[in-house]
């Protein structure tokens, strides 16, 4: 049987204790490493969760901003539509009122057109007799148009105003034209000189006779021979064959012109 000395036993015990201590330290270190790794893994997972939350937060923020912009756009558009609706409502009210007044307007415009046509006809009859065929034909066309159902009242009114404008323009122009006239019971071809609505003269084509229209007596009267050249010059001026010039011609007085 092997007997160890006390010293050897002591050394052996120390060795055993050292091995046990090393083993315990190794286990502790291993556990510490495992704990550290676990902590790091948890930290990584937490960071990943944080990154994921940050991405979702960023996306939600972008969505919020986008929705906010769309909301503002829709609000602006809705305000615009509301303004349009209010404007259309006002127009609707206006159109309704106009439609209600159309019948009254139609009843008033027809007598007005008829009165204007009759007044124009009477005016031409009382006026100096220049271009009688042309002016009478215009009046007859207007009179025939008054009873046509295929012509609107607006067109009738436009044509009446057009005829009035033509008559108004006669008062601001001079004109020379050739036509037939009844002189001493005979039809003769003469040259006419119209000075606005102030006076109307005639001259035979050979210059042998010159005269004017006496509107107060409603007849043609001869003029003295001294007016033959002024009338001839007036005809040339009206035809733009001569430059404008002063003419010495007989003219009705203000009272005669008024009549």
Strand arrangement, major sheet: 1-2-3-4-5
What would you call the structural class? alpha+beta
What is the string of helix and strand elements? HHHEEEEEHH
CA(first)-CA(last) distance: 179 Å
The biggest beta sheet reads: 5 strands, antiparallel
Radius of gyration: 58 Å
Count the beta strands. 5
Instruction: List the uncertain runs.
Output: none
Instruction: Assign a percent range to the helix content.
Output: 55-70%
Strand content: 5-15%
* Shape by Cα distribution: rod-shaped
Q: Can you count the helices? A: 5
The pLDDT mean sits at: 83
Would you write up a description of this structure?
The mean pLDDT is 83. The chain has a 5-stranded antiparallel β-sheet, with helices on one face. It has 259 residues and is α+β, with helices and mostly antiparallel strands. 65% of the residues lie in helices and 14% in strands. Among the domains are: 97-170; 173-259, no CATH class.
Give the key terms:
65% helix; alpha+beta; five-stranded antiparallel beta sheet; 5 strands; 259 residues
Question: What would a concise description of this structure say?
Answer:
By secondary structure, this protein is an alpha+beta fold. Helix content is 65%, strand content 14%. Helix 2 runs antiparallel to helix 3.
């Amino acid at each position: 049987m092997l007997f160890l000395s006390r010293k050897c036993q002591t050394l052996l015990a120390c060795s055993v204790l050292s091995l046990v201590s090393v083993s315990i330290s190794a286990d502790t270190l291993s556990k510490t490493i495992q704990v550290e790794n676990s902590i790091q893994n948890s930290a990584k997972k937490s960071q990943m969760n944080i990154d994921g939350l940050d991405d979702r937060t960023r996306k939600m923020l972008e969505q919020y901003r986008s929705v906010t912009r769309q909301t503002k756009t829709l609000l602006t558009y809705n305000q615009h539509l509301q303004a349009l609706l209010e404007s259309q409502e006002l127009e609707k009210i206006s159109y309704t009122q106009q439609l209600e007044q159309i019948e009254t307007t139609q009843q008033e415009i027809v007598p007005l057109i008829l009165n204007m046509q009759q007044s124009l006809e009477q005016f031409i009859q009382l006026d100096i007799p220049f271009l009688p065929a042309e002016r009478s034909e215009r009046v007859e066309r207007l009179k025939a148009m008054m009873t046509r159902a295929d012509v609107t009242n607006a067109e009738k009114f436009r044509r009446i105003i057009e005829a009035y404008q033509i008559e108004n323009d006669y008062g601001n122009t001079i004109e020379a034209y050739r036509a037939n006239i009844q002189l001493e019971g005979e039809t003769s071809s003469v040259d006419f000189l119209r000075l606005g609505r102030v006076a109307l003269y005639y001259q035979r084509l050979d210059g042998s006779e010159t005269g004017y229209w006496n509107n107060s007596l409603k007849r043609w009267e001869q003029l003295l021979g001294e007016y033959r050249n002024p009338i001839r010059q007036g005809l040339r001026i009206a035809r733009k064959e001569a430059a404008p010039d002063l003419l010495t011609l007989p003219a009705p007085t203000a009272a005669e012109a008024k009549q």
